[in-house]
Amino acid sequence: MATVKLRDIRKSYGKVEVIKGVDIDIEDGEFVVFVGPSGCGKSTLLRMIAGLEDITDGTLEIDGQRMNDLEPSKRGIAMVFQSYAIFPHMTVRENVAFGLTINKVNKAEKSAKVAEAARILQMEHLMDRRPSELSGGQRQRVAIGRAIVRDPKVFLFDEPLSNLDAALRMDMRMEIGKLHQDLGASMIYVTHDQVEAMTLADKIVVLKDGLVMQAGAPMELYHEPANLFVAGFLGAPSMNFLKVTVEDVGDDWVQVTSDALASVKVPNKGRRFTKGQAATLGVRPQYLMAAPDGQGMLNGKVILTERLGSETVVNLAVSDGTTLIAAIAEDAVLAPGDDMAWTFDPASAHAFPEVD
Amino acid sequence: MASRLTTSNRAGWGFALPGFGLIMMFIVIPFFFAFYLSLTNQRLISPNPTEFVGLSNYDRLLSISVLTIEPEVDDTGAVVRDDDGAPQYPRVRSFTRNNPDYPEYAGMREWFRWHSGDTAKVVVATDVVFWKSLRNTLMFVLIVAPVQAGLALVLALLVNQKLRGINIYRAIYFMPVVVSIVVVSLLFRFIYDGNDGLLNNILGFLSFGWFEGRDWLGNQDTALGAIKAMSIWQAVGFHMVIWLSGLQTISPTLYEASSIEGASKWQTFRYVTWPGLRNTAVLVIIVITMQAFALFAQIDVMTNGGPLDSTTTLVFQAVERGYGKQDISGASAISVVLFLIVLSISLIQRYITRAR
Question: Start and end of every ABC transporter domain (chain A) (predicted)?
Answer without folding.
Answer: 4-234
